[in-house]
Amino acid sequence: MNIEIIREYCLSKPGVTESFPFNDTALVFKVAGKMFALLDLSEDSRGISLKCDPELAIELREQYPEVTPAYHFNKKHWNTVQIDGSVYDRLLLEWIDHSYELVVNQLSAGMKNILSNM
């Protein structure tokens, strides 16, 4: 997994910001202040955690050994997956799209309108 490609891809989405909340060991990507991805930068883990709808989370965990439960997000509202760096990049980009869209779909109509005009 090329961290810079993943970072640039996340930042290419409308309204996305990034921050370093964990002592520069992870990058958090948010849209309208809502987190959709956490990119682990530590040398020993190098993976990404994504918000995921429950059905897809189960499917991904069953289909790919690289996908495991993640514990970075509030489990009451979201299923999450932790994906290690060995997953094929194209699939990873599709899963990032899914995570981003889940968060955008939860936003108000006004905020969605702002993002669509960016």
What can be said about this structure in brief?
This protein has helices spanning 3-11, 54-63, 89-105, 109-116, and strands at 16-19, 26-31, 34-40, 47-52, 67-69, 79-84. The protein has 118 residues and is of the alpha+beta class.
The biggest beta sheet, please? 6 strands, antiparallel
Overall structural domain count: 1
Number of strands: 6
Structural class: alpha+beta
For the termini, the CA-CA separation is 28 Å
What best-fitting shape do the alpha-carbon axes yield? globular
- Please compute the radius of gyration using only Cα atoms: 14 Å
Structural overview:
With 118 residues, this protein is α+β, with helices and mostly antiparallel strands. It has a single domain (3-107), classed as Aspartate Aminotransferase, domain 1, CATH 3.90.1150.30. It is 37% helix and 27% strand. The chain contains 4 helices and 6 strands, in the order αββββαββαα. The protein has a 6-stranded antiparallel β-sheet with strand order 1-2-3-4-6-5, covered by helices on one side. A hairpin with a 6-residue loop joins strand 1 and strand 2. The protein is globular. The termini are far apart.
Summarize the helices and strands and which ones pair or pack:
Layout lengths: L2 H9 L4 E4 L6 E6 L2 E7 L6 E6 L1 H10 L3 E3 L9 E6 L4 H17 L3 H8 L2
Antiparallel strand pairs: 1-2, 2-3, 3-4, 4-6, 5-6
